[in-house]
Amino acid sequence: MSSRFYVTTPIYYVNDKPHLGTAYSTITADVLTRYHRLFGDEALFLTGVDEHGQKVQQAAEKRGLAPQVHCDELAENFKTVWRELDIQYDVFFRTTDEFHKTAVQKALQDLYDKGDIYLNEYEGWYCVSEEVFYTEKELVNGKTPTGKDVTRVNEKNYFFRMSKYQNPLIEYIHSHPDFIRPENRKNEVLGFLRQPLADLCISRPKSRLAWGVEIPFDRDYVTYVWFDALLNYATAVGLNQAERSADFSKWWREAGANHLIGKDILITHSVYWTTMLLAMGVPLPKTIFAHGWVLNRDNEKMSKSKGSVMDPHEMVQFVGVDALRYFLIRDIHLGNDAPISHELVINRINTDLANNLGNLLSRTSTLIDKFFGGIVPHYNPAIADTDPASRDLIAHATQLAAEVKSRIEDFEPSVALERIVDLLNETNRFLETKAPWKTAKTDPTMASQHLYMAVEILRITGALLSPVMPKKCRELLSAVGVKAIEWGSLSKWAVTPPQTPIAKTAPLFPRIDASSGS
Ligand code: ME8
């Protein structure tokens, strides 16, 4: 049954260019989207940039540019990197777009009219790097819990009655077990909600910060950047835009949003955003999934502020875009932290892609070229029926698509890839045992039988890997004669028509010499 899938990445601050950490969130969302499209679902993928707030204003000031000019330039940088990483988003969201600002102002006005926003004195701390307010009690040795600097803030501000929605939120989380994921993140949010929730400061006086969405009921203020930014997920699909109500029903109310975020912004999404939605009377997202960190070689979080980031462009130059995408999805179990280094990437590519997938393709196409004139040889189902090893392999191959689908739907893309690699391993072992390079001379019926089976497995695995490695899999599939992938055909056997020409290919993933990593 096909369905709809709406996925979002965080919208990134335009204080710097994208790095491998931000690329990780975006690649993951791209991979999930491409899988859903492969399953026949209708999908919508949103990414974008978070342009307002103090952090961006300061970044623009540092460059001596007007904030909008700075943002326009950096937004382009993001698009360029996403293009290089083969990311096919549907929406590139910018919080400076007029329609968004108007929709944010409507949300503020509605909550104000309802009595959920009020004016009060704010006395506390502010962290520009996180754009988050902190109370004295929340600080650890005068810094944020993650060690970022804070500044004292004493100003009259508007507050959102977040406390009013604490209990409804707790009840919602309990009654929707799959809402905040993984489980440990849900527990973290419930732990946070054990303390009384304070109301949320949602404005900054223009005298302190000019770069933001003006508060509609008080022109001396702009909106707190998170209040503005979180709304992007819903305004993108039509919230507070009368003429887009059909879109909003389709993607927000019916499909439901899946917010893929890093664990640093779990509370802003699971508490600020959800209480805002509860107050507005708008359904909550379907899932908030917090993933872990891409770590550097010293096992530390890759972060812009520490300067310990890896440049995606440099990695693409080194291993190619598909291999990089494969590594990130395969080696980082979604939800956990995991390191990346040249050495780890080389090892993974050599093991899974060069020695396994690439090897299966090159040995199969070489043997078909050498012994069968480059044409898919004959296959006899009756022979396979009498051979337990063949029966097992076919059963495994025809169940793989369903297994991959369920793993992807469950946000476990690394496990989906593991299962695909298991089948490739099994197939290479099967060929070792059957040795068609020998039987081609002594028993060509058997050689043709087993090579046909290898072609079928390449057809299935090539299609199932294509959301992760779009370009390489297109090459692979075209080598085995597949023009267009049809989802239903991936759980069927003996689909490749007889006489299909098989192209003898150059190695899809040449082995990388370990000494080339640094
Ligand atoms: O927080 N590993 O933007 P941001 C994995 N504008 N993911 C990483 C990472 C790493 N080492 N470093 C960053 C903001 N990320 C707000 C979001 S949403 C309404 C507003 C990813 O530019 C991860 O997804 O600081 C994290 O949540 C995000 O970048 C933070 O990006």
Structure description:
It is built from 19 helices and 15 strands. It has helices at residues 20-38, 54-62, 67-84, 98-113, 166-175, 183-192, 225-230, 232-235, 245-255, 266-280, 312-319, 321-331, 342-372, 381-385, 388-409, 413-434, 436-442, 444-465, 470-479, and strands spanning 4-13, 42-50, 91-94, 117-127, 132-134, 151-160, 180-181, 200-201, 203-205, 214-215, 218-223, 257-262, 287-291, 294-295, 338-339. The strands form four sheets. A six-stranded parallel β-sheet has the order 3-2-1-12-13-7, with helices on both faces. Strands 5-4-6-8 form a four-stranded antiparallel β-sheet. Helix 11 (312-319) crosses helix 12, helix 12 (321-331) packs across helix 13 (342-372) and helix 13 (342-372) packs across helix 16. Bound molecules: ligand ME8. Residues 10-13, 21-22, 24-25, 50, 229-230, 232, 261-262, 264-265, 293-294, 301-303 line the site of ligand ME8.
Strands across the major sheet, in which order? 3-2-1-12-13-7
Number of DSSP E strands: 15
The biggest beta sheet, please?
A: 6 strands, parallel
Taking pLDDT < 50 over at least 5 consecutive residues as the criterion, the unreliable ranges are none
> What's the Cα radius of gyration?
26 Å
Distance between the termini: 47 Å
CATH C-level name of the domain at 352-516: Mainly Alpha
- CATH homologous superfamily heading of the domain at 352-516: Isoleucyl-tRNA Synthetase, Domain 1
CATH architecture of the domain at 352-516: Orthogonal Bundle
Structural class by SSE content: alpha/beta
